[in-house]
Fold this sequence. Notes:
Order of helices and strands: HEEEEEE
Shape: flat
Largest sheet: 3 strands, antiparallel
Strand content: 25-35%
Structural class: alpha+beta
Number of helices: 1
Number of strands: 6
Mean pLDDT: 91
Amino acid sequence: LDAVPEELRHDHENNAVLANLYEGISMTDDGLNKAFAKNGLKKFGAKGDKFDPNIHEALFEYPDPEGVPGNVGQVMKAGFMLNDRVVRPAEVGVVKAAP
């Protein structure tokens, strides 16, 4: 969903096909996440979370003057928990202190 530029997501006049596709995919994603949550499967991993090796898998570290060192700066793949147990760790990039 993040691949679609923000200005084209709701532009039904000039890019109707792309706007309708985005709307359909986001509705499907919402419905799927609600069904997962109803059965105990929760999605996690967001930018700004404190890095926790028990639930995150660090793929890389990078300097970011705007980020807090030791926090998640980028999420490559969201993680999932089933009844508070990690099924898949979130694959993330971690902010490191600037040199």
